[in-house]
Write a structure and sequence with these properties.
The protein is mostly helical. It has one domain. Helices cover 56% and strands 8% of the residues. It has 9 helices and 3 strands; from the N terminus they run ααβββααααααα. A 3-stranded mixed β-sheet has the order 1-3-2. β2 (60-63) and β3 form a beta hairpin. α1 (6-24) runs parallel beside α6 (114-126) and α6 (114-126) packs across α9 (153-165). The longest helix has 19 residues, at 6-24.
Length: 173
């Protein structure tokens, strides 16, 4: 495993999420996570997919059969907020196990803290810093943020707290 601090890991996860948001071209919420998974960046074409499932075992789970395309199996009956969050969370497993992710060493970097990393990544994929900043300037609360970004209330509260705790970059950087 690669030894990194929590801050370094979170910086890396924010940038992974930022890259995917930029790929989608989203300029306002909600970020089209499911569309991105159905039509992924070229480097992840054999790694992203969505399969609806009828099961009560999980909200969603990523699986990759040997020598086959990986897919996120997601419960068909999930409410939109939970569905988007589950898809965003499991996207990190798709990234880690992708050929590109393995070549970058993502498993060694993130596997020791996979659950925390996946939740953090999901919040930043669903609610990117620039978009949260715009809502924060309007003094929106976490309920409004959850509605606008179509994400669970608890995730929106955590995302807003993370945003408020992040050091602001100066205009020069």
């Amino acid at each position: 495993m690669i030894s990194v601090t929590r801050e370094e890991r979170e910086w890396f996860l924010r940038n992974l999420a930022r890259g995917l948001v930029e790929y989608t071209g989203a300029a306002e919420p909600p970020v089209p996570v499911e569309e991105m998974l159905r039509h992924p960046p070229t480097v992840y074409e054999s790694d992203f997919g969505v399969v609806d499932m009828y099961s009560n075992l999980w909200d969603a789970i990523f699986a990759r059969p040997p020598s086959r395309r990986g897919s996120i199996f997601v419960r068909v009956d999930l409410p939109p907020r939970q569905r988007r969050y589950a898809l965003a969370r499991e996207s990190l497993s798709a990234l880690i196990t992708s050929r590109h992710g393995r070549d970058m060493g993502l498993g060694g970097l993130l596997m020791d803290h996979l659950q925390d990393s996946a939740d953090y990544f999901a919040r930043h994929l669903l609610a990117p810093e620039k978009m949260v900043g715009a809502y924060h300037q309007q003094e929106e609360d976490s309920g409004d943020l959850a509605d606008s970004f179509v994400m669970p209330q608890k995730a929106a509260q955590l995302r807003l707290q993370e945003f408020e705790l992040m050091p602001r970059r100066s205009a020069a950087t």
